[in-house]
Every structure is written in C-alpha cells, then in structure tokens.
C-alpha cells in the first residue's frame, strides 16, 4: 500500500460510521495518523509523532500506547516501530515485522573476495533484502530451461498471465508480486520465512500456494516443480480464484473489511493480555455471509 492508498484507506475508515466510537472513552483503538513512506530518519519521525501523541493526548499514557494503531506504508516501517521502545507495544499494520528481532535482517553482511564474483549460498541467504531469495534464484535459475528470471521485461503482464507458478519473493515484507500472482491465477511460490503471508489467520495459503519452500531447495526448483502433480496446480489455482477478493481493496474486494478484523483480533489479544475488558465482536466487521468461509482454513475446491 502506498502513502496515497493509506490516505484513501484512512478516509474510508473515518467515513465508516460503524467502526467509529462516539467518544475516546468508548474506543477500542486509537489510530495515529502518521503518514510515512520510504524516507530518511523514519525512526526519528515515528519517535517525534509518538512524543506528540503522548504529550497532547492522555489516552496514550493510560495504556502505554498498547491500544494505539500505527499504519505504516514504508518498507521498513514495521521494523522501525518495533525497534522503538515507546511504540513496540502498539498495534502496527506494516509490510514487515519480526518480533523485536528485526535487526537480524538489517545487519551488514560479512563479505569476502571480489563483489563482482559469485557469492556463497549461505552469504546470499543472509541478505537483508528479500531474505536472500531473489539473489539465490538469480544465481541458480536465471538460465534454467522453462524459467524466466530477468531484471525487467517488456511483456511483464503477459509473463504473469502465461505462467503456472510464479515466484512471489519478499522484498522487505511480502510485496506486490504476491498480489500480482494471485490476480493472474498463477500459483505463488513463497520461500520459507519467519514472516507470515497476508491474512494468514483466514486464508488457507497451504491450499493456494507452494508455501514454505526451504531456501536450500531453491537451486533445485526445476526438479521440484517437475514432480508437482497437475491436479495440485489445478486445485491451487481454483483456490486462488475463490479467495482473490479477500486481497483486493474496495470496490472490487473486501481487503478493507478483513484488515479491520485482523486489527480487531490483534487488539483483543493485547487487551486481554493486560487484563482489560473486551466487548467488541471482531467478526462483525466482516461482510455478512463471509465469516464462516473465512474461518474455514480448509479449501475444498469448487463444486
């Protein structure tokens, strides 16, 4: 989501009367409208915003910020919020968060030899960007038969539409390629990561994707895919088609509703963890008729 889409989603939230509280005392969460994108001094920006909120609004102090929501469109925004002592207990909607260990993928890697030459797979696997997945695929598969691994392509949209399996690697967090893969009906291949894919509480990713492929197996992807039964691909493509609206924002989809529910579930867990009373029904944020299907993690195929 770009900063402009964030602005639009905030407007939608503010126009959605059922999700608004009439007074601060009745609110389950407080949205901090700190618009940010990829920029210098991002952590300092969030620190400044937090100090402003804590100074001018008493509701921050009452919960230590635990019932405040930050919505970050910056690639590393989740990491920055998680590194700040003052904000790490808040609720964050972000591309990428690693439970107070986010620094593990932001360190400078040890290098040896000449940078222009090949590097070891272990070295690539420690890369910050993409957790090394793009680098490993480029190193081993850019010349493999049946694969198209390029820096850029003039037929980009057709490439996605024509492929049966599409690599959907992390950038800093699961990025736009995962969405493109779903929309194209191309089964996404997600390498193993400690970061869960979008809406994993409600979407049966195991039935929609090649999920959790070990990084050590990436050089052997041609053999792995050759053994994949045709029926498996067909069923995963059907599941993608069935659930695609969940990943689209209105008016075509329901990602806004599911996002509100995910935020609600997270806030409920934090509230109960600190002994606070919770009186809101998170499932009521979903459109009528969708609660049961989204709770079911088993994909049974189309009839």
UniProtKB/TrEMBL annotation:
It comes from Emiliania huxleyi (strain CCMP1516). GO terms for molecular function: glycosyltransferase activity. PANTHER family: EXOSTOSIN FAMILY PROTEIN, EXOSTOSIN HEPARAN SULFATE GLYCOSYLTRANSFERASE -RELATED. It comes from the Eukaryota. This is Exostosin GT47 domain-containing protein. InterPro entries: Exostosin (IPR004263).
């Amino acid at each position: 989501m770009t900063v402009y889409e964030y602005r639009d989603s905030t407007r939608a939230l503010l126009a959605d009367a059922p999700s608004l509280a009439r007074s601060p005392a009745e609110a389950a969460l407080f949205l901090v409208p700190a618009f940010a994108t990829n920029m210098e001094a991002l952590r300092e920006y969030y620190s400044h915003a937090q100090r402003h909120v804590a100074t001018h609004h008493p509701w921050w102090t009452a919960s230590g910020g635990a019932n405040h929501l930050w919505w970050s469109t910056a690639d590393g925004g989740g990491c920055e919020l998680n590194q700040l002592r003052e904000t790490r207990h808040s609720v964050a909607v972000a591309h990428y968060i690693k439970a107070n260990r986010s620094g593990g993928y932001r360190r400078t890697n040890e290098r040896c030899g000449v940078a222009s030459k090949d590097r070891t797979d272990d070295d690539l696997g420690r890369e910050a960007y993409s957790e090394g997945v793009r680098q490993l695929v480029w190193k081993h598969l850019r010349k493999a038969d049946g694969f198209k691994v390029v820096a850029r392509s003039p037929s980009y949209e057709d490439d996605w539409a024509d492929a049966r399996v599409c690599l959907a690697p992390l950038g800093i967090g699961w990025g736009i390629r995962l969405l493109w893969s779903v929309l194209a009906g191309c089964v996404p291949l997600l390498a193993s990561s400690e970061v869960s894919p979008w809406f994993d509480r409600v979407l049966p990713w195991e039935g929609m994707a090649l999920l959790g492929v070990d990084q050590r197996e990436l050089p052997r992807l041609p053999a792995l895919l050759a053994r994949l039964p045709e029926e498996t691909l067909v069923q995963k493509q059907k599941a993608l088609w069935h659930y695609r609206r969940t990943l689209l924002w209105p008016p075509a989809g329901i990602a806004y509703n599911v996002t509100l529910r995910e935020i609600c579930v997270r806030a409920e867990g934090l509230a109960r963890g600190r002994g606070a009373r919770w009186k809101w029904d998170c499932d009521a944020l979903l459109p009528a008729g969708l609660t049961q299907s989204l709770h079911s993690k088993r994909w049974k195929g189309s009839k």
